Amino acid sequence: xxxxKKTVRKPGATTASAAPKRAATSTAxxxxxxxxxxxxxxxxxxxxxxxxxxxxxxxxxxxxxAKTAAGAPRVARQATxxxxxxxxxxxxxxxKLSIAEQAVHSAATQVGSDELRFGIExxxxxxxxLTMDEIDGSTRAIVNRVIDGLESGExxxxxxxGKGGWTVNEWLKKAVLLYFRVNEMAVIDAQPxxxxxxxxxxxxxxxxxxFRKAGVRVVPGAAARRGTYFGKDVVLMPSxxxxxxxxxxxxxxxxxATVGSCAQIGKHCHxxxxxxxxxxxxxxxxxxxxxxxxxxxxxRSEVVEGVVIGHHSVIGMGVFISQSTRIYNxxxxxxxxxxxxxxxxxxxxxxxxxxxxxxxYCAVIVKQVDARTRSKTSVNELxxxxxx
Length: 388
Hints:
There is one protein chain. The chain has 388 residues and is an alpha/beta fold. The chain has 10 helices and 26 strands. The protein has a 10-stranded mixed β-sheet with strand order 5-8-11-14-17-20-25-26-22-23. Strands 6-9-12-15-18-21 form a 6-stranded parallel β-sheet, with no helix packed on it. It has a 6-stranded parallel β-sheet with strand order 7-10-13-16-19-24.
């Protein structure tokens, strides 16, 4: 024990070289003292017995001394390793980095929306020239803070303006784009095989209590990326929901349906099997696609490029609507683009060219129903008899 204490008090190369010598010296002194103390009482017993006992004791002490001396270098090496300068510097640097990251993350969580917006706007303008110091210093923490806000519903890429329209928060869309800039590729654990991506799974590491709190039913095969919001009672069949998307409470995302990046899906909607709601990232769009509350999107339909579907509308199976798609209102004869009014029932159709030589695809509003009719009539009934 005495040897170990001395070694720890004196770190460095000197400790390693001096430890065996000191250990041997200390042990030898201890052995001599012990032998002398033992020999005194034995001498009074008798000459023969004293000699024999002293010899046995001496051999035992020598054996102990040799064992201790042999182990001294190992003890010295262990002591030296603990306080080795390079190791200590490495540990200190790692500790300092961890504390710094924690401090930056903690500071980012306390930043108000105006400060977050300024930070995102500034970083986005310099996105091509951002240095690693800038990214590690504050940019990544700010971006992650915004992504957390999108997940919790604190932020939305687009939100109702209270006047029947929508306000697009461009800075949040920029934060989503920056997320890809400030994060490196990494292996993402998943079944049946891992993924190689920059965006984590939305439900990575979730346990039972977290799923119960979220109130979302996630069926095997459903994929949702980080930064997506799901309201209570949302059902995710084997489908895909991209970063930045918002899915309101009570909505069903059916099998093979796709909710694109930053798309906004209202409450109590139904996205049927294979339906596609376009995103804003690929290709880059000015506004997200918006499906308002209580809408039904038929199987294999596509709504993309920032088109807005008004609340309580029904889009039939296989209808494709983009910003360039003509939307023909059968009742009024009007043609519009990019917006389907509330309570509309829409199916696929065709409009003839001016010279009558051909016809091109369009979406047809075959009828518009009031709230009372919509609430009492099933979707199937609304879609029947449309050829009349």
